[in-house]
Amino acid sequence: MLSNTIKTRGLHVGVRFAPPAGLDKTRRQQFQNKASIGFDWMRHEYTDKVWLLTSPQTEGDPRSQLKLTLQPEQVNFEDFFPVAPFDVFLDNVRLAMETVADVFTPKIMLGSGAMIRMTAEVHEQDARVFLGNRCLGLDERLTPIGRPVHAVGLRLLLPPIPLANNEPPWQAEIKIESLVEDVRQLFIEVDAKWAGPSPWNLDELVRRIRIANDFARNQVLAFLTQYEEGG
User: Fold this and answer.
1) In the predicted model, what is the mean pLDDT of residues 58-64?
2) Shortest CA distance to 102 belongs to which of 28, 26, 30?
3) Does residue 96 sit in helix, strand or coil?
4) pLDDT of residue 135
5) Model's pTM, two decimal places?
6) Are 70 and 46 in contact (CB under 8 A)?
7) Phi, psi of 14, deg, nearest 5
8) Which residues is 113 bridged to in the sheet?
9) Residue 118 and residue 9 in contact, taking contact as beta carbons nearer than 8 Å
10) CATH code for the part of the protein at 1-14+107-231
11) Above 60 in pLDDT, residue 231?
C-alpha cells in the first residue's frame, strides 16, 4: 500500500507580511539572540536584502537541514528531509515566526503558503509504469515519441473556491512524478497558497500548514490509491 510507504521529504512555509522589516545592524543582534532560542544555527548570512540561517541535521538524510530566510517583506521556514515528526515542525515554525514578530512586529499577513513534499513506493517497483499506465492510461500511446521515457509526471492546478464558515480560500498546485534517482518511488508535492490579506496570526498560519499536510496525505493519496486498488 502506498500509504504504508509515505515519507516526508520537505516541509516549507512562507509568509508575506507588512509593514516591511528593516534589515539593519541595530536589529541584527536582537534577531540573532531571539533566533537562537530552540535552534542551533550553524551558518549565518546577513546582507541588507536577506538574512539567512541554516542548520544541517546530524541524523537522517545527509541533505537534512533547517533553513530560515528573512527578507524585508517575506519570511520562509523550511525543513529539508525532516528527521522529526510533523508536530515538531509546527513547533519550530512557531518559534521562528515568534522571532520575526518580536523583532519586527508585523501587523498583516499579505499572503502565505505551505508546501508538502513526500515520496511513496509503488507495488510495481516502477513508478513510471504505475503513473504512466495505471493513472494516465498512456500504455503504448508513447510509442510515437520513439524514445525511452526516463520519468513520467502529472501536474494539477486547483483554483481557490469559496469555503464554509467564511474560511479564507486557498489554491494548490499538485505535482506527482516518478522519482528520477529511484524509479520505485513516486514524488508528491502539494504547494498550497492563501492570497488574501489577514491580521498576523500564528494560530491561523499553523492551521493553514495543517490543511496543506492533511490534503496531501488524505485527498492526494486517495487519488493515487484508487489506481493501486483497481489494479
Assistant:
1) 83
2) 30
3) helix
4) 87
5) 0.92
6) no
7) -135, 145
8) 14, 193
9) yes
10) 3.30.530
11) no
Q: What is the mean pLDDT of the chain?
A: 93
Sequence-distant (≥ 6) Cβ neighbours of residue 164 within 8 angstroms = none
- All three cell numbers of 155: 501536474
pLDDT of res. 159: 95
Q: Given the C-alpha cell 493513472, which residue does it identify?
A: 135
CA atoms within 13 A on the CB side of 217: 15
**Contact residues for 89 (Cβ-Cβ < 8 A; gap 6+):** 11, 79, 82
Taking a C-beta distance cutoff of 8 angstroms, is the pair 109, 16 a contact?
yes
Q: Is the pLDDT of residue 222 over 80?
A: yes
The CA distance from 203 to 167, in Å, is 14
- Is 20 within 8 Å of 73 (Cβ atoms)? yes
Q: Which sequence spans correspond to the domains of the chain?
A: 1-14+107-231, 20-105
The DSSP element (H or E) to which 171 belongs, if any, is strand 171-178
CA dihedral over 79, 8, 95, 59, signed as positive or negative: negative
Beta bridge partners of 154: 176
The Cα–Cα gap between 70 and 51 comes to 5
* Cα–Cα distance measured from residue 197 to residue 58, given in angstroms and rounded to the nearest whole number: 38
Q: Judge contact between 77 and 13, C-beta under 8 A.
A: yes
